[in-house]
């Protein structure tokens, strides 16, 4: 198969972890006989510095003509500490989501046996946790208009907007995942307060009729935030709107004990995108200490979701598990006192392992 991949390394540790994922993608492609074509483009703070736009048109064109996008991370302290900056790296991310029609963000949350004691939760609560968050990504408060300030600057406003169509397509997608998993879907909203949430619940109840084999549960977002900590094993697939999903997925991401391990996929109308959920971690940039596993696992998701090549994805996952079992890991997940490895050594080891 021909694999046309757009590579957007971004800022901070993005380029380093991307290099490792590409080593693994190359090794897998060779082993399974795929023809790999990658092209790299600018995004994030480095794109602002180079061309004044965090998601340049040339980058968008590359994404549109590719079969999948591998995305590192964006962000720079230069912009984080300047609330008056008119162009920000995050604007590029939002523009990209909108222009590629990436309306669904999929974040699997699983735990790794060797890391159970790193979770802030008790090991018995965490062991066996395995759920997927499906977050709506191109609507709600992030994109609703009007948004802004009053003329005197003393009042600010954001608008939460959702249409039936936007809700229906994401809820249906979530049911699709539930059907392939344990057939349990939690619809998270704030229907006791918000009009958009009441529409979510109404539409979700309609779509539920089409999936009688799936057990549907409706939960207010505050309760869901609590349940994620109290009983994370009770979830299978969770679907929710943009802002709630942003918050709940960060909460969910710490359950497994390390942010450096969790991949994500964004899918929608055009090319799908695969990225680690961690940020650009500027303090670690260039030091060969960043954990490349989330980026490598994002590449595994790419094989599974974008190319429908589950064997390739599984081979990458096995190699990642093997590297952890062998203790070939970066310092953030190494047991106390154990030898630790650099970003590129972990990448080399996994690439060599998948090639076997
Ligand atoms: C995420 C991030 C982004 C978001 C930021 C960087 C704009 O937090 O992908 O979850 O809020 O969606
Ligand atoms: Mg977030």
From TrEMBL:
Enzyme type, top EC level: oxidoreductase
Keywords (A to Z) from UniProt: Amino-acid biosynthesis, Branched-chain amino acid biosynthesis, Cytoplasm, Leucine biosynthesis, Magnesium, Manganese, Metal-binding, NAD, Oxidoreductase
Domain of life: Bacteria
Chain sites annotated for binding Mg(2+): 222, 246, 250
Recorded GO MF terms: 3-isopropylmalate dehydrogenase activity; magnesium ion binding; NAD binding
Compartments reported by the entry: Cytoplasm
Known catalytic reactions: (2R,3S)-3-isopropylmalate + NAD(+) = 4-methyl-2-oxopentanoate + CO2 + NADH
Purpose: Catalyzes the oxidation of 3-carboxy-2-hydroxy-4-methylpentanoate (3-isopropylmalate) to 3-carboxy-4-methyl-2-oxopentanoate. The product decarboxylates to 4-methyl-2 oxopentanoate.
Name this polypeptide is given: 3-isopropylmalate dehydrogenase
Organism annotation: Tannerella sp. oral taxon BU063 isolate Cell 6/7/9
Designated gene of the protein: leuB
């Amino acid at each position: 198969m021909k694999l046309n991949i757009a590579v957007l390394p971004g800022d901070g540790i993005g380029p380093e972890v991307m290099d490792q994922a590409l080593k693994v993608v190359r090794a897998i492609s060779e082993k399974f006989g795929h023809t790999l074509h990658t092209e790299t483009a600018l995004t994030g703070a480095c794109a602002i510095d180079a061309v004044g736009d965090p998601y340049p048109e040339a980058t968008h064109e590359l994404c549109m003509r590719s079969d999948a996008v591998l995305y590192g991370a964006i962000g720079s302290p230069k912009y984080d500490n300047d609330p008056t900056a008119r162009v920000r790296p995050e604007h590029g991310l939002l523009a990209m989501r909108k222009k590629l029609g990436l309306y669904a963000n999929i974040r699997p949350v699983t735990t790794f046996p060797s890391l159970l004691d790193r979770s802030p939760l008790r090991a018995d609560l965490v062991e066996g946790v395995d759920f997927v968050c499906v977050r709506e990504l191109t609507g709600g408060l992030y994109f609703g208009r009007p948004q802004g300030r009053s003329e005197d600057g003393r009042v600010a406003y954001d608008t939460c907007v959702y249409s039936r169509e936007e809700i229906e397509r994401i809820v249906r997608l979530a049911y699709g995942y539930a059907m392939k998993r344990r057939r349990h879907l939690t619809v998270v909203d704030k229907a006791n307060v918000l009009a958009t949430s009441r529409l979510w619940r109404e539409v979700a109840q309609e779509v539920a009729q089409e999936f009688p084999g799936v057990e549907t549960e409706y939960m207010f977002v505050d309760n869901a935030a609590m349940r994620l900590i109290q009983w994370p094993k009770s979830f299978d697939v969770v679907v929710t709107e943009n802002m709630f999903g942003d918050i709940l997925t960060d909460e969910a991401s710490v359950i497994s004990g390390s942010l450096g391990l969790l991949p994500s996929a964004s899918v929608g109308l055009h090319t799908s995108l695969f990225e680690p959920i961690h940020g650009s971690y500027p303090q670690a940039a260039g030091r060969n200490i960043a954990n490349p596993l989330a980026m490598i696992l994002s590449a595994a998701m790419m094989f599974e979701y974008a190319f429908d090549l589950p064997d390739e994805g599984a081979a990458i996952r096995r190699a990642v598990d093997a590297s952890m079992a062998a203790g070939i890991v970066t310092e953030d997940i190494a047991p106390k006192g154990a030898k630790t490895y650099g970003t590129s050594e972990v990448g080399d080891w996994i690439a060599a392992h998948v090639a076997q």
